[in-house]
Amino acid sequence: DAKTTQPPSMDCAEGRAANLPCNHSTISGNEYVYWYRQIHSQGPQYIIHGLKNNETNEMASLIITEDRKSSTLILPHATLRDTAVYYCIVRPYSGNTGKLIFGQGTTLQVKP
Amino acid sequence: KAGVTQTPRYLIKTRGQQVTLSCSPISGHRSVSWYQQTPGQGLQFLFEYFSETQRNKGNFPGRFSGRQFSNSRSEMNVSTLELGDSALYLCASIRDGETPEAFFGQGTRLTVV
Predict the structure, then answer these.
(1) Which of B45, B88, B104 sits opposite A99 (nearest CB)?
(2) N or C: which end of chain B has fewer CB within 10 A?
C-alpha cells in the first residue's frame, strides 16, 4: 500500500502558484519524499525530491515540514501544460531501487 | 541522450494468447522496473531487474514474468492473457546513485479482446 495521502483533485488558475499537499505520517528516517507527475497517457516524469530540507529546482519547490510527516509541492506559476496527475512517493535511501509505490495522486487542473 | 524506449507502443491480443514487451533503458543504467497502469488500480509495481537479476517483485500472478539481458535491455512476458490484463505497461530506467531517479518510457498500451 502507498504510504502517502493526497487530495484526489485540485484546481489552479493559470499564472498562479499551485500548492499540492501530501501526508506521509509514517515516513521513516531513511526515506526520501519524491514527486512525479503524469501527463495524460505518458510515462511519469520526475519533478523533485527531498529528505528534510526544502528543495527547489527549475520545475518546482518542495517544502517538507520539520517533523517530515507532510510536504507541499509548489509550482510557482502554473501553466496549462502543468495539468497532470501528481504523485507523492516515499522511498528508502537504499542505493539502487526501482520499486516505487504509487498512490492515487492528485489530479491538478490548471484553468485559463 | 536517448531516453527509455518501449516497443511496441500499441498491441492488441486475444484472450489466451501470450505477449512480450520490450524496454531499452538509458545507456549506462543497470536497473529496469516495470509497472502496470489501469484505471481501476492505478500504477502498480510489477518487478525490477538489476544486472540481469530480479531484485524486487510485486504482487502479480506467475503469468507475469520478465528478464534482463547483459546489455540491460529488458522484456516482460504475460502468458494466457485475460481481459483484465488490458493496461498501459510502463518501463522505468533507474539511474544509480545515492538518490536513485526513475526515468519512464512512454509505455505499451495492451488491449486484450
Answers:
(1) B45
(2) N
Pairing of strands A84-92, A70-75: unpaired
Interface residue A52 vs chain B (CB under 8 A)? no
Cis peptide before B8 (omega within 30 of 0): yes
- Interface residue B52 vs chain A (CB under 8 A): no
| Residue environment code for B45-64, b if the CB has 16+ CB neighbours within 10 A, otherwise e | bbbbbbeeeebeebebeeeb
Closest listed residue to residue B65, CA positions, set B102, B26, B20, B104: B20
State residue A91's pLDDT score: 83
Which residues of chain B fall below pLDDT 50?
Answer: none
- pLDDT for position B1: 57
Selecting from B98, B102, B107 the residue whose C-beta is nearest the C-beta of A98 gives: B102
Give per-10-residue mean pLDDT for chain A (112 aa). Answer: 89 97 92 92 91 93 96 97 96 72 94 96
**Under an 8 A CB cutoff, do B102 and A93 touch?**
no
Phi first, then psi, for residue B83 (nearest 5°) are -55, -35
* Nine cell digits for residue B2: 536517448
Interface test with B, best of A42, A96, A101, A102 (most B CBs within 10 A): A96
pLDDT in tens, B34-50: 999 998 889 999 999 99
β strands within chain A, DSSP E: 9-13, 18-23, 31-38, 45-50, 55-56, 61-64, 70-75, 84-92, 106-111
